[in-house]
Amino acid sequence: MKLATSIWQPGSGWSFPDDLQFEPGWILYFGTTSRLENGSGIIRELMERYPDAVCCGCSTAGEILGTSVYDDAIVAALVGFDGTTVRAVAGTLDSQGESAEVAGNLVRQLLADDLQHLLVISKGLEVNGTSLLEGFRRNLPGHVAVTGGLAGDHSRFQQTLTGLGDQLRSNQVVCIGFYGKKLQVSFACKGGWEGFGPQRRVTRSEGNVLFELDGVPALAIYKRYLGERAAGLPATGLLFPLELTSGLNTGDGIVRTILSVNEADQSLTFAGDIPQDFYVRLMKASATQLIAGAENAGKEAVTRRTIQGPALAILISCVGRKLVLKQRVEEEVEAVANSLNSEYKIIGFYSYGEICPLPDTGMNALHNQTMTITIIGETG
Fold it and tell me: Which residues on neighbouring strands pair with residue 283, listed in sequence order?
């Protein structure tokens, strides 16, 4: 496996490697929405330089390259596999009710006996991540893990973009399949958030739309806790995600983060389902807790499977973490890097949702507010 990275920045353009000794078969890029939206030629330039590569990526709430975090750049990983084949397909997702169906269609296009792993890059708005993952689970063999994330748009929540080839669109899901016995993949995700305040029962919800908690409009409760910060919703809601559990005092739950609010019906739309009669409570975190969580994710990814030699480490962290960390945001990336093999190349982005198997059951699932790591390498 051979690896290199590149970055596009305003004023200087692409910093392509001058001494690249291989022809990339796969290019993965992440960039700020405005640069992708207004400059599709930037991606076209990348593709023209490496015409034989499968090229895909998405918009972000921040770009990661090495141990640096950028806010107005496009970062790219150039990958040459020795014995692994890469295929990618895209599906149109116009409404969140189609999420499971679109996932199933993508899987059916990629299924083969030697399929080993799926990396999913989904639109970040008007998507039900829970249903999307259910569509993958229903159609995939049990040994195929799914990792990836939902595209971002900083804290604006206006438009996200995903790309396959030179087609950058706001309404698509891109799915990348990896084939062959030489492929090695490891992954992990950790949070660092803690619950506070009372647990409240979900008394009215539909899919990923939450209407009432304990019979009270959900948006009203959120506004009460946020106080002056409520004026900045949905962005300020990222600072206080929800912990979702199936019952009272049942231990750690799944974290859910807000995508949008509806003043008319006082509802909140989340990245994944909020089932009725489940329980939720608000969560908070300090920068120190989030950095520790990121470090633990790196350690778990390394110990889960040892990948020798060069490998690509894809870091997908939630925009909510970035808002909490502020000027310390690079510390969580550095914490992961310190846990990884020095031969690994690091690339990633800040997202509206993260995809990774659950550690206890191995079931592919949507997460929020986590640092999720996917390490892709090959046997020697």
Answer: 195
